[in-house]
Amino acid sequence: MSQSCSIQKCVRTSRGLCDCCQQNLCLQHLNEHNSLLITQLNPLTDEINTLEDRLKTLNIQNTISNSRRKLEEWRKDCYKKIDSIFEQKCQELDQLIEENIRQQREELNRVHLKISELINAQETTRQDIDSLTSTIRQLETNMNNIEQTCFTINTRPLIIDETFILIKKTTKSELDLSTLSLVYKTIVCPEGSFVSLTCNVRYLLIHQAPNLCLVDREMKIVKQTLWSYGTIWDMCWSSTLDRFIVLERNNIYLINENTMSIDNAYATQERRWLSCTCSDTVLFTSTNTYGSSIMEFRLLPAIELIREWKYSLTCSRDEGINDIVFNNGNLALMVMNDSKKSLRMELRYATTFDCIWALQLDI
Length: 363
Hints:
The protein is α+β, with helices and mostly antiparallel strands. The chain has helices at about 25-40, 40-55, 60-120, 125-145, and strands at about 15, 25, 200, 205-210, 210-215, 220-225, 235-240, 245, 250-255, 260-265, 275-280, 280-285, 295-300, 305-310, 320-325, 330-335, 340-350, 355-360.
């Protein structure tokens, strides 16, 4: 027996099962439902056209520009390290030959002076003549050796594999803490050590009382030097200077990772430093006081103060800037409000100090 259409008050015989509503419908209502479905295609067409337009206007350079910039920075840093090693070895070559030349020149001057003294005195002996002759022959031999000096340079190929750079696609808002590796090794710091630390691509710089220490990737101390100055408030690395920068109460020190020499680059009694960070051209420091200032120093040709950002632009009078980090033309600040016992993070343009965003932290 035939079945009636499922639409209320419709007396026509059903002709089939509608796949959208799963009801048995007559031919007319099947057509109506089909037309309704077809009308829903138009908005989908509009959406796909919009996506096609977005794809056509997508600027791939904007998408990858930041990543390319990081790759370019890595490339320049590698070249800089190669150039640094090259210059260092050239200096070693110069020093080796110059030391021989210096000794030869000193001996020549000594013999020349001796001969002049004998001539001026108009008096000499056979022993003097024999001694001078022997010395001159030895100097002649030394000169021949210097002229014939050659060096054996043993080099190893610089092996760089693809694992030096790993590219992973992420979204801007993605932060997956589960990707952090487990603790590899722990360094126990003796009592009296300062907590600040920083690193470059080769070493970690830490204070292990009473020394400043360079730690390699295996967490082994490879170099150290006595730190005989005051409290270390912060550290950072400057690739431009090829030096570590260390903040003491009133002083800014430069640490040479090759020699571990410590040079005082800037001293003041008017400011007390708290934190620091570097761009390619500028050193930023915050002052250790309420109503903190951000001080901007030129790195080259010498560390020189060029600008000061004062409160209330940096923070309010009862706030202090505990930490600063530079990246991609921006400064991240950690600002503590002592009266409200609150902490917030801010991101600001490094050139204008305009605020990009601020995040209150419930800590």
